[in-house]
Design brief:
It is built from eleven helices and 13 strands. The chain is α+β, with helices and mostly antiparallel strands and about 350 residues long. The protein folds into two domains: about 160 residues, no CATH class; about 140 residues, Nucleotidyltransferase, domain 5 (2-Layer Sandwich). The radius of gyration is 25 Å and the shape is elongated.
């Protein structure tokens, strides 16, 4: 069995939005309380943990606040779990020390219906404590153990993971080489080219205008709040365009090809080139590989990663002649066999040949 993650926007009325904000505020209050107490205990030479703090909160703190009993107790229980995970990652050197949460920034909370699963499907869904909610898009019939509700810009989103049985799809091509680039997002050895939509670059002027609008508003005013939401919606739109392009590309590759051959790009090193860092981040090469890895498992494909030092751009795909290829040169002209071919297409064919 494999897991597939879903995230979709909720269609809420004012009272439901208020209820979501109250639960998110509950989780934020508990997080900040526990994080402050954790730090104080550590400075006193004690060894705090989430289990001890949770027991203290349940027995002595929660009874003091009537409003907490009106909200789902699962919110604060998951908050302690998340705090424990955050400190585990910190102690392993995988993340920074947990920060205090601020209202309106990354608001979220988690619910479940233990021990029963939560059934979802269609446009209307019944969530624990929250009740019936609607989504803008229909969901497939599925079950999940827990759901997370989060706020992005001025909207609330439902996300969860559901188990499904991977199914191998019929393939139209046995092997395909994929060359990632900036001018074109991906060039396949089959000749198909996926354009780079460059969502951030195309929206940069609009972002500058919206950011300037925020800076001109009085802090704490309603107009500033509206301007911040407008800016957040624009950033969200940019991210959605990028995600949509990557999902369509990786799904096509995994579904229709037996083996997908890519190059082991050193994205962190490429980002150190300040002339190309913005364009590389806009294309999201790292996210492309992450999606391709799990989708190849879903659809019965094989992902082949060629060594990053393989000279895919320098080799002639016909005679294997090797020559230097500066980035500004977009056509590969082979002096040995006379081949003249697009640089990216030549590289993708070389990636295919490296395996085939």
């Amino acid at each position: 069995m494999a897991h597939k993650a879903f995230k979709t926007k909720l269609k809420l009325n004012n009272s439901q939005c208020t209820l979501m904000a109250q639960h998110a505020g509950f989780g934020r209050w508990v997080w900040n309380w526990a994080l402050r107490l954790w730090g104080e205990a550590y400075r006193e030479g004690l060894k705090p943990n989430a289990a001890k703090l949770k027991k203290l909160f349940t027995s002595h703190i929660k009874p003091q606040y009537q409003w907490m009993s009106e909200l789902s107790s699962r919110v604060y229980q998951y908050t302690f779990e998340h705090l424990s995970d955050a400190f585990n990652r910190f102690f392993k050197g995988l993340a920074k020390y947990p920060n205090f949460k601020k209202k309106g920034l990354h608001d979220s909370f988690t619910l479940d219906a233990t021990p029963r699963p939560i059934k979802l499907g269609g446009l209307r869904h019944k969530l624990p404590v929250i009740g019936w909610v609607q989504t803008h898009e229909a969901l497939p019939d599925c079950q999940t153990k827990k759901v997370t509700i989060s706020r992005e810009a001025d909207g609330w989103y439902l996300s969860f993971a559901s188990e499904f049985e991977p199914e191998e799809t019929s393939k139209t091509r046995e092997i395909v080489g994929v060359d990632l680039g900036i001018n074109s997002l991906a060039t396949l050895s089959s000749g198909l080219v996926f354009p780079n939509l460059k969502p951030y670059r195309n929206a940069l002027k609009r972002l500058v205008i919206l950011q300037r609008s925020v800076s001109r508003k009085v802090k704490g005013s309603n107009n500033r709040h509206k301007a911040i939401n407008s800016l957040a919606r624009q950033h969200q739109k940019i991210a959605n365009i990028r995600k949509d392009a990557l999902h369509k590309l990786t799904t096509y590759l995994a579904k229709n090809h037996g083996s997908v051959v890519i190059e082991d790009l050193h994205v962190a090193g490429m980002m150190k080139n300040h002339q190309l860092a913005g364009a590389i981040a806009d294309a999201a090469f790292g996210e492309f590989r992450r999606q391709l890895e799990y989708k190849c498992q879903w659809y019965g494909s094989k992902l082949v990663v060629v060594d990053r030092f393989f000279p895919s751009s320098q080799l002639c795909s016909r005679c294997n002649h090797q020559q230097k290829m500066p980035l500004k040169v977009r056509t590969y002209d082979c002096p040995k066999c006379g081949l003249s071919i697009d640089r990216d297409l030549n590289a993708s064919i070389n990636l295919e040949n490296a395996v085939g």
